[in-house]
Amino acid sequence: MPLWNKEKNEDDKSEPESTLFTTDKFSRTDILICASNGCIYAIHKQDGTKLWKTKIDRSAAVISIFVTDSDKVVAGGFGKTHCIDLMTGNIIWTNKMPGFGYAEVSVATTPSKILYPSTAVPTAERSDILPPHYDQVTEDKQITISCSAGKVMAIDLESGETLWTYNCPGGWYNLPAIIIEPSNWEAGRPHQLVYIGSGKWVYCLNASTGHVIWSVQVSTAKLSTEYMTLATPWSSRLAAESHSAFNQNPSGQIVAVQRGRQQLS
């Protein structure tokens, strides 16, 4: 039986808890979030001072983290998704993702606002060399996309309620990769899209409903690890500016491959 389908041992059960280390004021731009050994830490980017610590689960060998534009940290690991307050480390909600097993979890959240080029022409001199102005357009409610063991779950970011689930045909028990594409009214697409790569397949889903827009098997290899990473020009630009992204550092997938090798040995 795969390790990610086994029931938890009594020793693995530990309640999440958070600890605030400082009463000094800090802003969202001061915070660096890191995760290790079942815990999430917020440290100050200027000097490395610990701001808070939140214990998720010591069984979570790899914790994926995503900071939303509404000051929440979404963390996935050991078959669960947690939502944490960015400023305090307090756990807002936990979705235990029933039926998803106890493996690594990929996470991403839809944005609350999208930047579109403004139709207004800049009035400053030499406007032709200025960067374009942008208007912020408010999107629908934010949705967290959590994936594990070849399955996808959409979670309401505010409540932690499960909105929909999708079992990727051909995804098997692989750790899916996620890319979220905002809506584009100018292109006639009023809904946000979620691209999922799992095994040898890629799926395009409506983020709000989970409706499958299309799916395609991109690989026909008979011998492979069946793990996939995804990128678009825009997602790569964002990754370059942030210097890191989950799909460029697939540590969770490496752990899954190591687990498979251990089972064969």
Automatic annotation (TrEMBL):
Transmembrane segments: none annotated. Residues 37-259 form the Pyrrolo-quinoline quinone repeat domain. It holds the Pfam family PQQ_2. InterPro entries: PQQ_b-propeller_rpt, PQQ_rpt_dom, Quinoprotein_ADH-like_sf, WD40/YVTN_repeat-like_dom_sf. This is Pyrrolo-quinoline quinone repeat domain-containing protein.
